[in-house]
Amino acid sequence: MAVLRAGRWRVGLHGLVLAFAIATAAGSGFWARELPVQRPGGTDQIVSVAPAGPAAQQAPGPLLAAPDSTVADVMNGYLSTGGLAVTPDVLQTDTYITADGETIYDVAQATGRSPETLLWANNLVDPGKPLPEGIQLRIPPVDGMLHVVREGDTLESIAARYQVDVSAITGYAPNGVQYSTDLVPYRLLMVPGGKMPSRDRVIMYTVQEGDTLWRIAERFGLQTKTITLANSLPDPELIHPGQQLAILPTDGVMVQVKEGDTVESLAEYWGVDPQVIRDYPMNGLGENGVLRVGQYVMIPGGEPPPPPG
């Protein structure tokens, strides 16, 4: 494994969304849940992003987790791979050690990988966030999504998750897989050309030099009006480097439930079918769920009503 070192190679709506994002990042709030770090066992060890060298004594706490970090700590019970049709080769990744203040954008330029590839491979969400010195970053061999095989995975389910054809996975020789029976739990799999899965939470994005709202929206798969509404931007053209923007998980609006609100009343106000709110998984409502005062609710496709007159 090669190691690369840096240098060498509604107005109120914004406040609600910001408060929600902070609560989520702090480990509490509407969608809070434990997000264990992915640490697969066996010969492929994919560890959490961590400082190296002298910076280890000064580095801050864990960086934001990726939208999907649901694999439990399995170092104490790696499953046997005996009986599988094929034992895949170990997927090789490089390691890049950051200089103080580098961002994922900088690392992307130095390594030739896309920011999206690096974000997903390292459980990060903001490509513009300065990183401490000595952080070890995984550098996948090609652009795409680095996947940790889980129990129950199939080639079809992995391909669907990252929006590619199965042939993208089987056609990448270092994966060493042709059938779902070739998949080894907790091994790394490269999904060339894969896209980030849908997020289930609000994240905060730091505007970079040269950013436009259109480019930011495209990066996160959203419409510009979704970001404009979530951040109460008076003019979408007037964003500036260093500005923090709340990025919703899908197009629409997020609201905080007030006394007297119902799914039906919210749906009517924001112009959607009530079932859209009930069916959105992270709202946790289902058919019989009841809204709670103070609860944050995502309304996919919601838009403000037209001004009167």
From TrEMBL:
One of the record's GO molecular function terms: lytic endotransglycosylase activity
UniProt-listed Pfam families: LysM
InterPro entries cross-referenced by the UniProt entry: LysM, LysM_dom_sf
CDD domains attached to this UniProt entry: LysM
Start and end residues of each LysM domain: 145-191, 203-247
SMART domains xref list: LysM
PANTHER family according to UniProt: LYSM DOMAIN-CONTAINING GPI-ANCHORED PROTEIN 2, MEMBRANE-BOUND LYTIC MUREIN TRANSGLYCOSYLASE D
Protein name in UniProt: LysM peptidoglycan-binding domain-containing protein
Annotated source species: Thermorudis sp
